[in-house]
TrEMBL record:
<dbReference type="InterPro" id="IPR016162">
    <property type="entry name" value="Ald_DH_N"/>
</dbReference>
<dbReference type="InterPro" id="IPR050740">
    <property type="entry name" value="Aldehyde_DH_Superfamily"/>
</dbReference>
<dbReference type="InterPro" id="IPR015590">
    <property type="entry name" value="Aldehyde_DH_dom"/>
</dbReference>
<dbReference type="InterPro" id="IPR016161">
    <property type="entry name" value="Ald_DH/histidinol_DH"/>
</dbReference>
<feature type="domain" description="Aldehyde dehydrogenase">
    <location>
        <begin position="24"/>
        <end position="469"/>
    </location>
</feature>
<dbReference type="Pfam" id="PF00171">
    <property type="entry name" value="Aldedh"/>
</dbReference>
<keyword id="KW-0560">Oxidoreductase</keyword>
<protein>
    <submittedName>
        <fullName>NAD-dependent succinate-semialdehyde dehydrogenase</fullName>
    </submittedName>
</protein>
<dbReference type="InterPro" id="IPR016163">
    <property type="entry name" value="Ald_DH_C"/>
</dbReference>
Length: 473
């Protein structure tokens, strides 16, 4: 049965002319999931204008009023958890269990930023003094935030951006991926029940055209983008033309380091989470696995055994470990990377064969040379690239020399692991665990992995700026 997302008129203030259908397909079996109405630059301009008109009223609300709305949205997401999880699984291919977790994670962002709004107001800075002069220094919301999000976490990444913007007193226009807009549309519907008209709108359609329309729109005061480094550079250039503040969460290479003091079995289990969560399509997924030579053979034996035992199939089946990737193009890209590495003589350990129909990828472990594309690129799928190491200093130099620094992992004795993690130019590092992210902590990268932070109090403050008012004492 098809699920049809609202026409643009339900997500924008007025009906939109010139809309066109965007059909969404299930990567597990190719069946149609539903349809959402695509729009063009004119609709993006109207969405931004509506958010601009709503901004003064929303910014004037107290932190307590904004927090109450965010908590109501969180409750609405939890009430719709079964529907949202099923929809997310059908349009992304992620396992149903993970989709349920994503709904809870998304609600958690609204709950956390409700707390953060109150904490930010309570922690307002004291005014400085000077002879004969009184000052009032405060943080004020920037205005309309354009939130541009990818397909791999179609609920939680929009939630992380939208909740922070709303908590700060901003309004927002969401542009989700054209590959997975249905769950985002449902989230926006739930949000709109608890927000003044225009406070949150959504547009879907051509990603290049809509992104350019939003970054160039005079109503837009800030941009929050998650995507590849290549596209992030384009978005940063568009923002620079108008000096727009931009939070950019971009690509990464996710080093996973197994040190000499690591517990091998615990490290394998952490890697299974860090590598294969979300079918391997996570911006902080383990990408380059470094194993100390003293553990290398044992680690490979146990890790490849675990990969060989993965169950690949229908993401709605509770016994499934890996579902399909998002599209046939992604399937073919990943197959090409592994085939090229094997042709160059790399050792490879394959997991179970996937179903013949659908966008499935055979999981694999590949022992890579440093110059192999499978080692030097972001994999973004259920293939692990591994290599031994012996020198920790050389390891740190190599990782920091990549220029990417979003997520990483270190498994070792706690004190040694923390020390090594602190030397890495990486925004979030999991020490002896494969799931380091949480709504309460800042999330973002160094270098080519972007700028700014999402989550935690910094995620709210990104959408504010200082205002100083000076008057005679």
């Amino acid at each position: 049965m098809l699920t049809t997302a609202p026409r643009p008129g339900a997500l924008l203030p007025e009906p939109v002319s010139g809309a066109f259908p965007l059909m969404i397909f299930d990567p597990a079996d190719g069946t149609a999931v539903g349809e959402v109405a695509g729009v063009g630059a004119d609709a993006a301009a109207r969405a931004a204008a509506a958010a601009g008109a709503a901004f003064p009223g929303w910014a004037a609300r107290t932190a307590a009023e904004r927090a109450a709305a965010l908590r109501a949205i969180a409750a609405g997401l939890r009430e719709a958890a079964a529907e949202l999880a099923a929809l997310t699984t059908r349009e992304t291919g992620k396992r149903l269990e993970e989709s349920h977790a994503e709904v809870g994670f998304s609600a958690g962002f609204f709950e956390w930023f409700a707390e953060a709004a109150l904490a930010a107001e309570a922690g307002a800075e004291e005014a400085p003094t000077a002879p004969g002069r009184a000052f009032r220094v405060r943080r004020v919301p920037l205005g309309v935030v354009a939130a541009i999000t990818p397909w791999n976490f179609p609920l939680s990444i929009p939630a992380r951006k939208v909740a922070a913007a709303l908590a700060a007193g901003c309004t927002a226009v969401l542009k989700p991926s054209e590959l997975t807009p249905l769950s985002a549309a449902r989230m926006v519907e739930i949000c709109q029940r608890h927000l003044p008209p225009g406070t949150l709108t959504m547009v879907t359609g051509d990603p290049i055209g809509l992104t350019a329309a939003l970054t160039g729109d005079p109503h837009v005061a800030a941009v929050s983008f998650t995507g590849s480094t290549r596209v992030g550079r384009i978005v940063a250039g568009q923002c620079a033309e108008r000096f727009l503040p931009a939070v950019l969460e971009l690509g990464g290479r996710g080093p996973f380091v197994v040190g000499a003091g690591a517990d091998v079995d615990e490290a394998v289990e952490a890697l299974m989470v860090a590598k294969f969560r979300n079918n391997g399509a996570s911006c902080i997924a383990a990408n380059n696995v470094f194993v100390h030579r003293s553990h290398y053979d044992t680690f490979l034996e146990r890790f490849t055994e675990r990969v060989a035992g993965l169950r690949v199939g229908d993401p709605r089946d509770g016994s499934t470990d890996l579902g399909p990737v998002i599209s046939a193009a992604e399937r073919d890209r990943l197959a090409g990377l592994t085939a090229a590495a094997e042709a160059r003589g790399a050792r490879m350990w394959n997991g179970p064969r996937p179903p013949a129909e659908g966008c499935y990828v055979r999981p694999a472990v590949v022992e890579c040379l440093a110059d192999d594309p499978l080692w030097s690129d972001e994999i973004f799928g259920p293939v692990a690239a591994v290599r031994p190491f012996t020198d920790a200093d050389a390891l740190v130099q190599e990782i920091n020399g990549w220029g990417y620094g979003l997520g990483g992992y270190v498994c070792d004795m706690p004190e040694r692991a923390r020390a090594l993690a602190g030397r890495l130019r990486i925004g979030i590092v999991g020490v002896n665990n494969g799931a380091p992210n949480n709504p309460r902590v800042p999330f973002g990268g160094f270098g080519d992995s972007g700028q700014g932070r999402e989550g935690g109090m910094p995620g709210l403050l990104e959408f504010t700026t200082y205002q100083t008012i000076s008057e005679p004492a």
